[in-house]
Amino acid sequence: VALSPSPDGLLRFGDTVMLINTRRTENPECVLSIVADLSDITTHLETNSKPYLRGPCQVGGASSIQPCVRNAFIITSVDETADGEILRYEQNFALRTTPGFGGELYLATDHKSFQKCAKKSRLQEVSLVKQLDFLCWWKLLYINPQERLEHEGFPVQVNTKLLVSHCKTNQCLSALSDHTLWTVFGKESEITAHTFLDSHKAERDCNHWMLMTADPGDEESRR
C-alpha cells in the first residue's frame, strides 16, 4: 500500500494516509490499525474472488509505522465533496480502509452501552463497519483549544498534531497505552473514542494524532 504524496503539504479528500498517535517519550507512537483474524475474512463464493475483510472488525494501536493494508485509510467524503478537494478543520469526512483485501470498511463509533463498549477500558468502542452512515462521520479539530475557533475552515496540513473528533458523540479518538490488547499481531494499545482533558482543559496526548502522507521525495524517486 502506498500513501498519497502531498506536494503542497495539505490533506485532500481521496488521500491515503496513516493515523499516528503522537505520544511522549515514555510511550512510543502507535498507528491506528485493523485487528482481524480468519473469521473476519471472506470471499465471494459465486466468483471465487480474492479474500477480503468483512465488517465489523476491531481496531488497535500498532507499533509498526510501515504503511500496509492494516494501517492505510482513505479520507472519504460524506457530502459529495470531490476527491482532490482540500480537507478543512471541522469539515465532516469518513475514514475508509483500502479496496481489495482491506474491504472498504468505515471507522465508526457510538455511545457506549452495557453490551457495547471497549473491552479493557469500558469506554466508547471504535470499530470498522461496512455501512457508511452518521456513525462514521468524523472531523478534525485544531490542537490548541484557545485557537480552535479561529482555525475553523482552514486547510489541514499533513503530519500536524490534531484531534479526530466524532460528529455524533463529540468524543475524540484516543489510543490508550495503559490498556493493551493481545492480538494475532502482538501487543497493541486499545483504541477508543473518549476525550481526556488535563487541568488546563486541553486534550491529553492520547488524543493527539497526525495524518501522515508519503514524502513527496519518495514519489519523485519512483518516477
Automatic annotation (TrEMBL):
Signal peptide: none annotated. This is Cilia- and flagella-associated protein 161. It holds the Pfam family CFAP161. Coiled coil: none annotated. One of its GO terms (cellular component) is motile cilium. Transmembrane segments: none annotated. The keyword Chloroplast does not apply. Keywords: Cell projection, Cilium, Flagellum. GO terms for biological process: cilium assembly. It comes from Silurus asotus. InterPro entries: CF161. The keyword rRNA-binding does not apply.
